[in-house]
Amino acid sequence: MDGLVLKGVSKSFGNTRAVEPTDLTFARGELTALLGPSGCGKTTLLRMIAGLEEPTRGTIRLGDTDITALPAHRRKFGMVFQSFALFPHYSVRENVAYSLTIGGMARARAHEKADALLETVQLGGFGDRRIGELSGGQRQRVAIARALAQEPQVFLLDEPMSALDAKLREEMQVELRLLQQRLGITTIVVTHDQREAMTMADKIVVMSNGRVEQIAQPQEVYHRPANAFVADFIGKANFFDGTYRDGAVQVGGVQLRASAQFRSGSPVRVAIRPERACIDDDPGDNRIAARVMFVRDLGPLREYHLQSDIGPIIVEYAAGETGPTLATGDETTVRLPPDALQIFPRAEAA
Ligand code: ATP
């Protein structure tokens, strides 16, 4: 298999440890998102994969070949970074064909290939335009076409859509994902945007403080986060700190029944997604008195912001779901189903 394999790869800048020793496998043809907050080390990791930064320790292999010491230009990876760095005085076609003609391909053939790539990124007919005559999203697609011109085995993108407005960004995420699947190219995307990662990735690598917190498929990262950091970073969650004892978590004066196994007396953090909390008449476990502090109606979603005996809780209903009709100031009862509670040891939750 021609996957990309990192073994014990780390990077220090002076006293700053940007990336802790990391083992990662990027399977052939898959799209992996490196996701985490600013400064977590994702760009540094990508730059080491690109050959733009030398690892302090560890090895990087592509299939059977150790590429750790191979300079960037010899890796022949496709790259699209935050600034697309297109040549403004060249035409769109010349931008895409540039690496091919520099590599010795005849101009006519390089231009033919560039036109085919422009078709692929839905910019057929734009070849003669100057870069300055394109929108941000079109420029981004030129950068993608240019990166793909050399038929790279590996395609690396660092926040490629950060310059685009929200709507275009979402459209481009879908387009890029479809293109990547069609080409079957091993792709790594750095992003701090969890929606971008959820939209595009086969696998998400969640990072914080230079460490990998979880590697899993998007749905698994959302529904089974490895720890409280991941639960907090991916999607929304309500959190409560308490102590685990005999199948329940004591939070202040309230006992929350929970299906979890911890040593009695362990400090834990409880998380529940807003859409898993309920306001209903079900006589099940974990019913807690609450007062409505704020109602946030977003159209497709309605959020109830509650104050309860265990702290603030947000409960979310999708439009069309049968939910309560409550107003600010109403007294109600919130229910936290035991199987919807995620319980993490508190040391990790710090
Ligand atoms: P962002 O989303 O803000 O780009 P990131 O997750 O990509 O963040 P990195 O750019 O990889 O984070 O940085 C990780 C850490 O390494 C940060 O603390 C950063 O300040 C530090 N760092 C990165 N590059 C260098 C450098 N060339 N010299 C010194 N420190 C660096």
Structure notes:
The protein is an alpha+beta fold. It has 2 domains: 226 residues, P-loop containing nucleotide triphosphate hydrolases (Rossmann fold, 3-Layer(aba) Sandwich); 113 residues, Beta Barrel (OB fold (Dihydrolipoamide Acetyltransferase, E2P)). Helix content is 26%, strand content 34%. The chain contains 10 helices and 19 strands. A 6-stranded mixed sheet has the order 6-7-8-3-9-10, sandwiched between helices. It has a 5-stranded antiparallel sheet with strand order 13-12-11-14-19. A 4-stranded antiparallel sheet has the order 2-1-4-5, with helices on one face. Strand 9 and strand 10 form a beta hairpin. Helix 3 packs across helix 4. The relative contact order is 0.12. The model has no long low-confidence stretch (mean pLDDT 92). The site of adenosine-5'-triphosphate has 12 residues, from strand 2 and helix 1.
List the helices and strands and how they pair.
Layout: E1 4-13, E2 16-26, E3 31-35, H1 42-50, E4 57-62, E5 65-66, H2 72-75, E6 78-80, H3 92-102, H4 107-120, H5 136-148, E7 154-158, H6 166-183, E8 186-191, H7 194-200, E9 203-208, E10 211-216, H8 218-223, H9 228-233, E11 238-245, E12 248-251, E13 254-257, E14 267-272, E15 287-297, E16 301-308, E17 311-318, E18 331-335, E19 342-345, H10 346-349
Parallel strand pairs: 3-8, 3-9, 6-7, 7-8
Antiparallel strand pairs: 1-2, 1-4, 4-5, 9-10, 11-12, 11-14, 12-13, 14-19, 15-16, 15-18, 16-17
Helix pairs in contact: 3-4, 3-5, 4-5
